[in-house]
Write a structure and sequence with these properties.
This protein has eleven helices and eleven strands. With about 325 residues, it is α/β, with parallel strands linked by helices. Strand 9 and strand 10 form a beta hairpin. The structure holds S-adenosylmethionine (SAM). S-adenosylmethionine (SAM) binds next to loops.
């Protein structure tokens, strides 16, 4: 590298890069976010000792390391903001409304499956485990609870797997929960081993519709605060895929600032006192439909990028027992 000056990304380089990123992960960088991409990828170019974006685009587009480089790139460009017990009102809907119904409905099989899709560093997945744990109480001994956290970034998944957090992750966590489900170790908070054992993590790109099938059917899917980075076509693809993967009486939770309004999906909004969530079909009272056409209609043109069953180099793949 000649010096440490920021490397400028031209308009055409930005255009090529955002197309590559969108095609691979469905993440849309609007024009106004060019500076974000430039500053985040600039660091990657420095690490690689590459001094212009055309070289980087070639590196990403061809050659034996391109898949590894995509992973490095996602580690850099994704926004991983999260916390334990993020958005309490919505979690109340899960705890007080959805969970009791699902537990009742699964009483004969005593099997509960929850997916935290785009889980970042794991706070959301562990939060759901804590809620299930305190709801089932001693009954948990008789239940098989599977909670899976997935993300496109290996870096955040490694943090999730470690289960070790700083005060920043705990900023929306009550003292009671801290006391019950964490062990403090200097500046860190370690997730209780019982809760840790309820959760697995896996590398998964939400763009990869076929790969999602390997997980089987879920009772509850949380996919919060990631669809804000997707355009409507990608949102429709992801949500329709959730429609295929969710049990008929399953529940979908999206971020409080996200909406399925205007999209063709098989879901209807369930309005609750404290927040909202979604169920499939024209659900019972208090619902507002957001579209009920077949799952595949709006998204036929978008094909999954990864091949199903392709071998993975991820450290996260083998941990999951598939249904
Ligand atoms: C803002 S965090 C949300 C974390 C958590 N769901 C929450 O609401 O607190 C968004 C996460 O989505 C992940 N992400 C972005 N695009 C993705 C994709 N195509 N597939 C899977 N995860 C993705 C990012 O890596 C990031 O960790």
């Amino acid at each position: 590298m000649p010096d440490t000056k920021a490397i400028t990304m031209s308009a055409s380089q930005f255009e090529k890069l955002r197309k590559i990123i969108y095609e691979r992960a469905g993440i849309h960088f609007p024009d106004a976010k060019k500076y974000v991409l430039e500053s985040r990828l600039g660091r990657r170019l420095e690490e690689l000792e590459i001094d212009d974006y055309d070289q980087y685009i070639s590196f990403l587009s061809m050659g034996p390391y391109k898949d590894d480089e995509f992973q490095e790139m996602f580690n850099k460009i994704t926004i991983n903001e999260t916390s334990f017990f993020r958005n309490e009102p919505q979690l109340e809907v899960f705890e007080k409304q959805a969970l009791p119904k699902i537990i009742e409905a699964r009483n004969s099989t005593k099997r509960l499956r929850i997916w935290s899709a785009a889980c970042s560093s794991g706070e959301e997945a562990y939060t759901l485990a804590m809620i299930v744990h305190r709801t089932l109480g001693v009954r948990i001994m008789d239940w098989k609870v599977e909670i899976l956290g997935t993300d496109i970034s290996e870096k955040v998944l490694a943090d999730a797997q470690a289960g070790r957090y700083t005060d920043y992750s705990m900023r929306t966590t009550s003292p009671l929960v801290k006391q019950r489900y964490f062990k403090q170790d200097g500046p860190y908070w370690n997730v209780d081993p019982t809760i840790k054992s309820m959760v697995n993590f896996d590398l998964h790109n939400l763009k990869d519709k076929m790969a999602a099938k390997r997980y089987g059917t879920w009772d509850v899917i949380f996919c919060r605060n990631v669809m804000i980075y997707f355009d409507d076509a990608m949102k429709a693809q992801v949500v329709n895929s959730f429609g295929d993967q969710l049990a008929t009486d399953g529940w979908l939770f999206i971020g409080h600032s996200e909406t399925l309004r205007g999209l063709n999906t098989p879901f209807s909004q369930v309005n609750c006192a404290q927040g909202f969530c979604y169920q499939k079909g024209p659900a019972g009272s208090g619902t507002t439909t957001t579209g009920t056409t077949a799952a595949s209609s709006a998204v036929a043109a978008l094909s999954a990028l990864s091949k199903p069953g392709a071998p993975s180099t991820s450290a996260f793949r083998p941990s999951l027992k598939l249904s």
